[in-house]
# Entry
Amino acid sequence: MQDSSGVGEAAIKVAIVHDWLVTEGGAEKVLHQLLHLFPDADLFSLVDFLDEERRAKVLFGKRARTSFIQHLPLAKTHFYWEKIFSKKREIHE
# Structure
């Protein structure tokens, strides 16, 4: 199928990026709606620690592709590693 611009739907690739998936809050409600609009979108996040019940509710069961931070020691309880890295970068600049 093509739209009026002549670009076919198959040519459109959507990626959704979320900071971290650890709870169900306002940002996750927006993410839920975006995934409803773009069910085939690739999903990326620094970490994804949603339990299966929340994953089904918020992400329609979809799993995010995560960063190396997901696998760091204590990442589940200290998922703010990203803030540590950005502070370290500021100090060096």
User: Anything to note?
Assistant: The two ends are 49 Å apart (CA to CA). The chain has a mean pLDDT of 80.
